[in-house]
Each structure stands twice: as C-alpha cells, then as structure tokens.
Amino acid sequence: MTIPFLDLKSINAQYRQDLVDAATRVIDSGWYIQGTELKAFESEFAEYCVSKHCIGVANGLDALTLTLRAWKELGKLKEGDEVIVPANTYIASILAITENRLKPVLVEPDEQTYNLCPTKTAKAITSNTKAILAVHLYGQLAPMPELMTLADQHDLLVLEDSAQAHGAAINGKKLVVGVMPQASVLPW
C-alpha cells in the first residue's frame, strides 16, 4: 500500500501557469538579480505584510545574518552578546548568530506549540542577553505580545524568523507579522 506523503505537484498545480509566467518574464528580461520583477514582488509583499519596506535577498540565512550585522553596525549589538533562540530551530538561526560573533542561547520550546515559551525565555535572560530571535513554526506564531513585553522589560531587540508564518493568525486573528518586533524575516 502506498501512502502519499507530500504531493507537491498537485499542491502547486493551481499555481503552475502563474509560476511559469513569472519565470518566463524573468528569463526574458535577462535580469536574474534585482530588476523589475523583484521590485514588484517587494512592493506587493510589503503591502501584504502591511509594512513600509521589503528587501529581497537570496534566502532566510542571508536575511537573518544581514539583520544582525546591521544591528552590530548600528551599535545595537556587539561581539559576544547573547541572542535567545528556540532550541528546536533550523540551523540557519544559529549560523546567523555565530556568523556575527554573537552567542546563541538555546531555550527549550513550549511543549504544545513548539515555539518560544515566555517563561522559559525569561529564565534564560542574563546581563549579556541583547536580543531574542523568535522563530514561528508550523504556521503558528510565537507568543509575540508576551515576548515583546519581556523584551521591553529588559531592553532587548527582537527579530522574527517568519519563514513558516506568512499570513499566520494568533487566537483566530490574523496578526501582521513583523509589526511588533524591530525586524522580521520572511523567506519566500
């Protein structure tokens, strides 16, 4: 007996022509980096996220790395500062932190949601903690209101890895990802 696990072909069938058309426009334009297609995507995605800005980069790791690096350049972080991150995150979260010579502090996730737990996060904060990297998983948002309260109490930066949270909702209400923290990364 064969049990289909994930049939991407049937999932993407409804989008096939749109994807072919978009790829054709890019190929025909000769602009594989930057160009009008990227600018149009950035504009449309910023509008979808109710955000002033959207900057397209190669992947989520680059986006996380560049955001942390920008904060270092702005003097908001320095080498050796601690960044709290969920222990069950994808390796890109850790690599972005260590690439910037920051120290990842792994916090066990909430047993129900697998996202950061505010109580466990609070216990992990030290005088060296300068940021929280909240990673939304499985279409569920981390408890951002609670994490932002915690961040405000301790003067911490907050970065969202929203790769799995495009259009996600919390308590049945669509929460605009990226509105509360200082930065949000939404790899596409």
From TrEMBL:
Gene3D superfamilies: Type I PLP-dependent aspartate aminotransferase-like (Major domain). Keywords: Pyridoxal phosphate. InterPro entries: DegT/StrS_aminotransferase, PyrdxlP-dep_Trfase, PyrdxlP-dep_Trfase_major. GO terms for biological process: polysaccharide biosynthetic process. One of its GO terms (molecular function) is transaminase activity. It comes from the Bacteria. This is Aminotransferase class I/classII domain-containing protein. It comes from Vreelandella sulfidaeris.
